[in-house]
């Protein structure tokens, strides 16, 4: 992070002086504007990088080791199969829901 700050500082002075020459503006404010523009560019880049990594985590993009651990946990729980307590029809039962209400 210190390297990025030093780079932004080192680039803002020449860019500001160049901008002051091209636009016939005072050098001080031009350097400040150049520094602000570079700060905005690096902040936007960091935000996009963070959003991309968050999206990859949320979409299920994970390492093979993590996928193996997740699959092992899934198998240990019976492959995700759940059973309803006795006396309570499961959602896939033909006697559940509206069909059961009509039969009663």
Short description:
By secondary structure, the protein is mainly alpha-helical.
Q: Which structural class do you get from the secondary structure elements?
A: mainly alpha
In whole angstroms, the N-to-C terminal distance is: 70 Å
Mean pLDDT level: 76
- Strand fraction band? under 5%
Order of helices and strands: HHHH
Biggest β-sheet description: none
Instruction: Determine the fraction of residues in helical runs and give it as a percent range.
Output: over 70%
* Shape annotation: elongated
Number of strands: 0
Uncertain segments: none
What count of helical segments does DSSP give? Answer: 4
Report the radius of gyration as a whole number of Å.
Answer: 30 Å
Topology, element by element:
Elements: H1 2-23, H2 27-58, H3 64-76, H4 97-103
List keywords for this structure.
mainly alpha; 104 residues
Structure description:
With 104 residues, this protein is mainly alpha-helical. The chain has four helices and no strands. Helix 1 (2-23) packs across helix 2.
């Amino acid at each position: 992070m210190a390297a990025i700050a030093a780079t932004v500082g080192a680039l803002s002075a020449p860019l500001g002086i160049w901008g002051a020459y091209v636009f016939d503006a005072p050098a001080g404010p031009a350097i400040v504007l150049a520094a602000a523009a570079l700060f905005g560019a690096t902040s936007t880049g960091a935000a996009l990088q963070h959003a991309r990594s968050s999206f990859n985590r949320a979409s299920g993009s994970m390492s093979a080791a993590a996928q193996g651990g997740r699959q092992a946990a899934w198998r240990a729980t019976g492959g995700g199969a759940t059973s309803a307590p006795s006396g309570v029809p499961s959602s896939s039962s033909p006697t559940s829901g509206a069909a059961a209400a009509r039969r009663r």
